[in-house]
Amino acid sequence: MSTFNLPERPGPEPRTRGPVPHGQLDQTAPTHLQEELWGRMRSLAGVYVAPTHVPYPEARAIHLAQDFGTGSDDAFIKRAREFAHMHPVQDSSLHMTLPATVKKLVTEAGWGVPHPIQNTQLVYGPRDRDEIEVVWRILLRSYNYARGVESEV
Prior knowledge:
By secondary structure, the chain is an alpha+beta fold. The chain has one domain: Aspartate Aminotransferase, domain 1 (Alpha-Beta Complex). It is about 25% helix and about 20% strand. It has helices at about 30-40, 100-110, 130-145, and strands at about 15, 25, 45-50, 60-65, 80-85, 95, 110-115, 120-125. The strands form 2 sheets. Strands 3-4-5-6-8-7 form a 6-stranded antiparallel sheet, with helices on one face. A two-stranded antiparallel ribbon has the order 1-2. α1 runs parallel beside α3 (about 130-145). The mean pLDDT is about 90.
């Protein structure tokens, strides 16, 4: 199994709400960083955009095509093809599926918190250029988990 290291997220963690909807209340990502991250997410090979399977209709979700690889049932939200979604601009956080060891690292490094009732991890929206790269690395772990691929990102 590969190692995955994360830097500590600087500053205090954002306030959150939940469990439904579960999201970020402050320290939101600038809109241009949200849009850049969304562009990267939807351009991943084998990914398609479709409605989310959670009760947050404004969220933008990415799903993995059936023939592009299949991770375990836990690699998908509600056992559908969705593995990650981005919340609306006023929230800016993301939910994604991750292996248990990566969820633990994300939480310990201050980049997010586990969803209180689902198998996903809330990842805080990136506040600057450095943070978008960390959030992207975490998202790539979710993508590889959904594909059934273990790799170091």
